Amino acid sequence: MGLFDFFKKDKENKEQQQALDEGLQKTKTSFFDQLSKAVAGRSTVDEAVLDDLETMLVHADVGIDTTVKVIERIEKRVARDKYVSTGDLDRILREEIVGLLDANSSATGSRAILDRPDSPGQPFVIMVVGVNGVGKTTTIGKLAHRFHSAGKKVVLGAADTFRAAAVDQLIIWGERVGVPVISHGMNTDPAAVAFDAVQKGVAMGADVVIIDTAGRLHNKVNLMNELSKIKRVMQKVIPDAPHEVLLVLDGSTGQNAYLQAQEFTKATDVSALAITKLDGTAKGGVVIGISAQLQVPVRYIGVGEKMTDLQLFDRTTFVNSLFKK
Predict the structure, then answer these.
(1) Residue 303 annotated as lining a ligand binding site
(2) Domain that includes residue 48, residue range
(3) Is position 241 within any domain?
(4) What is the CATH number of the domain that holds 9?
(5) What band does 182 get if pLDDT is binned at 50, 70 and 90?
(6) Do 257 and 283 belong together in one domain?
(7) Domain count, the chain
(8) Is 104 marked as a binding-site residue?
(9) Which residues have CB under 8 Å from 22's CB, separation 6+?
(10) 87 within some domain
(11) What is the CATH number of the domain that holds 263?
(12) Which stretch of 19-23, 165-169, 233-237 has the lowest confidence by average pLDDT?
C-alpha cells in the first residue's frame, strides 16, 4: 500500500467511525442516561444495581433473553472479583457484551468478497430477504456501491416483482451505482428473474450477484415456497447458490425486528443480518439482542442516508462507540 493509499484509507476509516458515532448518538444518550440512574449514589455493583441495570438493558431493546445472559456474566465477575465498583461498570459491561457477540462474529460470507480475487470462477450470490419498509432495496443499492467501488463486478436481480416500486427503485439504484439490473417488470415470475440474473453474472464474469425478493410476510408457507423456488432455479446455474441469505431488519422497530427475524428464519435459512436505520432510533441495543438470540451474525449496519453509511459490523467497534461519551 502506497503512502497516498494509506492516508486515503485512514481518512475513510475516520469518516466511518464518525458516521457510526453520530448514527448511534440517540441510543448512546438514552443508554447513558439510564446507566447513570442505575449507579447514582452507589459505590459498588450490588443486587440493586444489577436490577436497575437489567431494566436499563431491556429499555435499550437488548431483549429479555440477552439481558439475562449479560446480567449473569456480570454476576459471575462480581462473585469472582469480590469487589467491583460502579466506576468499573462501563468497562465490564462493554467487555461482557463484546464477549456475548463473539460467538456470532464472522468474517466470512459477503463481507469477504472484498478480499477475494476478481472473477474466482463464479459469482458470489446473495439473496436478500425482509419485509417491506425496512430499507431492503436501499441496502441492496448500498451493498452494490460498496462492491462496485472496490472494483468488483456486480449484477442486481429485481425479483421483488410483487411491488412495482421495488423494481423501479432497484433499477434507479443500478443506474446510480453503475451496475446492470436484471428485471422482468411487475407481476412476473421472481424465480425467472433470479435465474436470468445469476446467468448474466456467470456470463459477464461477475464477482457478486445480489437478488432482491418479495418483502411480505403474507403467509409463512407461501413465503417458504417462493424463496425455495428461487433457490432451486438459481441452483440450475450455480449448484450451491445462494451463498448467503441476508435478512434486512429495521433497527428502529426494536423488538418487532426480532419477531420479523424469527418468522424469516423459519421460512428460509438466514445466514446473515443487516440492521438498518440505527441513526433514527434510541433502540440500537437491538443489534446486540437479535444477534445473540438468533445466533446469526450481523454483517452490516445502516447508520445514515449516504451510500457509504452501510457499514461492515464489527462488534468491538460497535460496542466501543456505544460506550463512547
Answers:
(1) no
(2) 3-102
(3) yes
(4) 1.20.120.140
(5) very high
(6) yes
(7) 2
(8) no
(9) 279, 303, 304
(10) yes
(11) 3.40.50.300
(12) 19-23
Residues 214 and 117 in one domain: yes
The reply to whether 133 sits in an annotated binding site is yes
Q: Is 69 annotated as a binding residue?
A: no
Does the annotation place 135 within a ligand binding site? yes
CA R_g for the chain: 21
Do 215 and 163 belong to one domain? Answer: yes
Q: How many whole angstroms separate alpha carbon 144 and alpha carbon 131?
A: 20
Same domain, 267 and 171: yes
Q: For residues 283 and 59, what is the distance between their CA atoms, to the nearest angstrom?
A: 8
Pairing of strands 310-312, 272-276: unpaired
Say if residue 140 is in the same domain as residue 66: no
277 annotated among ligand-binding-site residues: yes
Q: Is 276 known to sit in a ligand binding site?
A: yes
Q: Which grid cell is 41?
A: 449514589
Whether residue 141 has pLDDT greater than 50: yes
- Three-class SS string for 192-226? HHHHHHHHHHHHCCCCEEEEECCCCCCCHHHHHHH
Least confident among 31-35, 45-49, 209-213 = 31-35
131 among annotated binding-site residues: yes
- Considering the domain boundaries, does residue 265 fall inside one? yes
SS3 273: strand
- Whether 61 and 200 share a structural domain: no
pTM of the model: 0.87
pLDDT tens track for 301-324: 988 888 888 998 888 888 888 777
Same domain, yes or no, for 12 and 126? Answer: no
> Which region holds residue 277: left if phi is over 0, alpha if psi is between -120 and 50, else beta?
left
130 is annotated as contributing to ligand binding:
yes
Is 136 annotated in a binding site? The answer is yes
The answer to the question of whether 214 is labelled as a binding residue is yes
137 is in an annotated binding site: yes
